[in-house]
């Protein structure tokens, strides 16, 4: 990981797992609602990343200065308004993702990409640890050609630098639509910090993330 951080420093500036699917219980039959993007042309932009369990991804990106909001949901599939239970079946084509609204004057897309690579193991195909299925795939949904260019550039250079012993398998695809997950998935770690999954799985990831990106954290 030192290679990873060093490489990003030059260019622009994996842990144990318990099954996330086993911990998530859908107590609501309410369908997810399509989430419109509320983007300001001058002050806000959007990044959409999938890196396994969206609870973990959300908790880490919420820490970064310049990140205005993080919304957990689904993207990249073929079923409209999917519920969490449907996505868990692995038949909708959706990935668990986070829609990250950020202020580009405070944090760049390059820096968000650096955080993305740190949140998970991008060499695992359609899984993260014990969470297995296409819904847990490593994926970047780009919103414009610049985001696509940067994602492909860094993926290539990280592979060439041997930041991981195996090739990165992260999917890089155009963003189409984002469906917000049920309300109980939102702000999950902050609202359920005492839960065993949060304590044993998410907390260690958050602590490591704080160490690596301490210069970019909110005060």
Give an overview of the whole structure.
- By secondary structure, the protein is α+β, with helices and mostly antiparallel strands.
- It has a single domain, classed as Peptide methionine sulphoxide reductase MsrA (Peptide Methionine Sulfoxide Reductase, Chain A).
- Helices cover 34% and strands 19% of the residues.
- The chain has helices spanning 2-11, 20-23, 54-61, 84-88, 109-118, 145-161, 188-191, 196-212, and strands at 33-34, 45-51, 67-75, 95-102, 127-128, 131-132, 138-142, 171-174, 178-180.
- The strands form two sheets. A seven-stranded mixed beta sheet has the order 1-9-3-4-2-7-8, with helices on one face. Strands 5-6 form a two-stranded antiparallel sheet.
- Helix 1 (2-11) crosses helix 6 and helix 3 packs across helix 8.
- The longest helix is centred in the last third of the chain and has 17 residues, at 145-161.
- The chain is globular and about 35 Å long.
- CA distance, first residue to last residue: 25 Å
CATH architecture: 2-Layer Sandwich
Strand order of the largest sheet: 1-9-3-4-2-7-8
Query: What structural class do helix, strand and pairing data support?
Result: alpha+beta
* Helix/strand order, N-terminal first: HHEEHEHEHEEEHEEHH
Q: Based on DSSP secondary structure assignment, what is the total number of beta strands?
A: 9
Mean pLDDT over the residues: 87
- Number of domain units: 1
Annotated CATH homologous superfamily: Peptide methionine sulphoxide reductase MsrA
* Low-pLDDT sequence parts: 9-18, 25-32
Helices, by number, come to: 8
**What is the CATH class name?**
Alpha Beta
Proportion of strand residues: 15-25%
Quaternary assembly: single chain
Globally, the shape reads globular
The percent range for helix content is 25-40%
How would you sum up the major sheet? 7 strands, mixed
**CATH third-level topology:** Peptide Methionine Sulfoxide Reductase, Chain A
The gyration radius over C-alpha positions equals: 16 Å
């Amino acid at each position: 990981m030192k290679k990873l951080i060093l490489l990003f420093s030059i260019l622009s500036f994996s842990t144990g797992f318990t099954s996330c699917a086993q911990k998530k219980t859908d107590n609501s039959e309410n369908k997810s609602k399509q989430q419109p993007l509320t983007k300001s042309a001058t002050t806000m932009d959007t990044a959409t990343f999938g890196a396994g369990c969206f609870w973990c991804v959300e908790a880490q990106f919420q820490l970064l200065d310049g990140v205005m909001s993080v919304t957990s949901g689904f993207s990249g599939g073929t079923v409209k308004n999917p519920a969490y239970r449907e996505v868990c079946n692995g038949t909708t084509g959706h990935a668990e993702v986070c829609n990250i609204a950020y202020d580009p004057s405070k944090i760049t897309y390059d820096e968000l990409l650096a955080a993305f690579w740190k949140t998970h193991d991008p060499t695992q195909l359609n899984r993260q640890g014990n969470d297995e299925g296409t819904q847990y795939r490593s994926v970047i949904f780009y919103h414009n050609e610049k985001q696509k260019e940067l994602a492909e550039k860094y993926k290539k250079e990280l592979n060439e630098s041997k930041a991981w012993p195996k090739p990165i398998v992260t999917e890089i695809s155009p963003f189409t639509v984002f469906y917000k997950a049920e309300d109980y998935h939102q702000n999950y770690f902050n609202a359920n910090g005492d839960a065993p999954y949060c304590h044993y799985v998410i907390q260690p990831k958050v602590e490591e993330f704080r160490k690596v990106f301490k210069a970019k954290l909110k005060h």
